[in-house]
Amino acid sequence: MIYVSVFTSRHEEDIWTEIAKYLDGKSLVMLAATSKWFLRVVMDESVWKFACLRDLQVPDCSETAFKWINLYASAFDWMRIGAFCINSSDAFLMENLICPSKLPKEDTMQNMLNSYGSCVLHNIKTGIWIADLQLVRCPVCDLNTCDGTMQVLDVRHVELFLTEGYQTGSWEYKLIGSHDIRKHSDSASGGIFDIKYLKSPSTAELFNLKSWVGSPNDWQPKAMVTYHAVAINTNLQENEGLHIKYHVMTSGDTGEIVSIRISQQLL
């Protein structure tokens, strides 16, 4: 503490602001607790913006209506896969992780899912999105050895948890389509992509399954995130197929999609 006091007397505030940018969230809080002077330095918006973008490993791709310190706390209070950006307001959802030669053009969402196991969503809120993976146990099983019977890929706009509509519960998930695969499935997989970057070199890495998906006898869930997409895969043992549901949450004022959920349950 004595060392810090002497050191601060000889250095300008902007130097400490730059130093603070390279500390993780826990270290920033500890530094802020040392004195009122450091609290003021650490609370600078540029510090938390830098920390948030760095730890989420995404570029600075949008403006935000919230303080970056609040976004940081919101982004790191969950089981997070990673983060990516949606810049085009259009997203492509799929469950087979095979790069399509063309996008589906069926007249309804359900027809797209039935024909291709994929669909296109419009009016997506642009900016940074957080991706989470959950494994949910069946309601009749309470065994610690159970790996779960449902896999859920959740992605949400980075601001979602801070918005009034979400906090009051007025924004809810809506089912937009579902279908069954009534035969043995080797794996449960899913992906969400910014359509503008579906053919980009960075997104192409997600379709190279050998580079990140486990061997056939590896039952641990795997995930991969790029700047503009996220994908998950879990290898499955003997089964009778999958029941797949697609949900979205929209904001009340603009109707923009602020969260997307793909769930896959064993039949």
UniProtKB/TrEMBL annotation:
It comes from the Eukaryota. One of its GO terms (cellular component) is nucleus. GO terms for biological process: reproductive system development. This is F-box domain-containing protein. It comes from Lactuca sativa (Garden lettuce).
